[in-house]
């Protein structure tokens, strides 16, 4: 994963200090590209422990067209909790402690972090046990899963982009139109978080499937390791579906940034020596990627350095 570490080093050395939507502040650069040869190992960051189970369950959540955090919370995946939680604590129904700017405040105040944790526990329990509450506050709007599987068309129908692109790869592998987009301008304002990984394209050559992702906004410490592994996994899954080998994953970043409260963590990670990449195993029991469960996908030989904690900017 030298490519990822080089990205971190480049931003630290050449990035511009900028303000951002969250009020945290970043060091940022615009336009950066990494390439990973998927035949040489699965690109899961080894300089800190990265939870493959969470990456897998989130990707399968997208693939199934789901947009409600209830599914993820039931699988002990809390990647999206903060955005749904924010919707609840800003509502008239919420009557607990003041949660204004809870992400940044909790990062600076351990006592307030405990209060947030208590309220988050209440929120998750209500999501799992109260269907009406989950429908109201668990749904994130028309985020990735909706756009991938049910893009609204002008005739009132919907377009299954993911299923269509798989069929296109099978039937017309040399096409230059193997594209899925999550950026829907007419629905961006309805999303809890506008898509960061905005569109991706597949390319077939020499019996191998490659994928290029354009990511408009890239949280380099927390988000990018997940994004690399997620789209590498998606490439593997679709290659298997289409009876192809894997080629490259090309990751193109727009605004690539390190948050100001992640600098120490990035430097700690850069002090560590990368280890050998793991390998990916996909069960042969399911015929379609749309039927896969988290337990059907495993990585073998993953021996990372310990996890490095950092606050998320909401």
From TrEMBL:
Gene that encodes it: thyA
Q: Which reaction does it catalyse?
A: dUMP + (6R)-5,10-methylene-5,6,7,8-tetrahydrofolate = 7,8-dihydrofolate + dTMP
Presence of the UniProt keyword Methyltransferase in the record = yes
- Recorded protein name is Thymidylate synthase
Q: In which pathway does it act?
A: Pyrimidine metabolism; dTTP biosynthesis
Record-level GO BP terms = methylation
What is the annotated quaternary arrangement, including any partners? Homodimer.
Keywords for this protein: Cytoplasm, Methyltransferase, Nucleotide biosynthesis, Transferase
NCBIfam families from the xrefs?
PRK01827.1-2 (NF002496), thym_sym (TIGR03284)
**Where along this sequence does the record place binding of dUMP?**
21, 176-177, 216-219, 227, 257-259
Instruction: Give binding positions for (6R)-5,10-methylene-5,6,7,8-tetrahydrofolate.
Output: 219, 313
The Thymidylate synthase/dCMP hydroxymethylase domain extends over: 2-314
Q: Which enzyme type, at the first EC level?
A: transferase
Q: What CDD domains is this protein classified in?
A: TS_Pyrimidine_HMase
EC assignment: the record states: 2.1.1.45
The entry assigns this protein to a family as follows: Belongs to the thymidylate synthase family. Bacterial-type ThyA subfamily.
Subcellular localization is given as: Cytoplasm
Alphabetically, the GO molecular function entries are: thymidylate synthase activity
The family database entries (InterPro entries) matched by this protein are listed as: Thymidate_synth/dCMP_Mease, Thymidate_synth/dCMP_Mease_dom, Thymidate_synth/dCMP_Mease_sf, Thymidylate_synthase, Thymidylate_synthase_AS
Q: What does this protein do?
A: Catalyzes the reductive methylation of 2'-deoxyuridine-5'-monophosphate (dUMP) to 2'-deoxythymidine-5'-monophosphate (dTMP) while utilizing 5,10-methylenetetrahydrofolate (mTHF) as the methyl donor and reductant in the reaction, yielding dihydrofolate (DHF) as a by-product. This enzymatic reaction provides an intracellular de novo source of dTMP, an essential precursor for DNA biosynthesis.
Q: Which residues form the active site?
A: 196 (nucleophile), 196
One short Pfam name that applies is: Thymidylat_synt
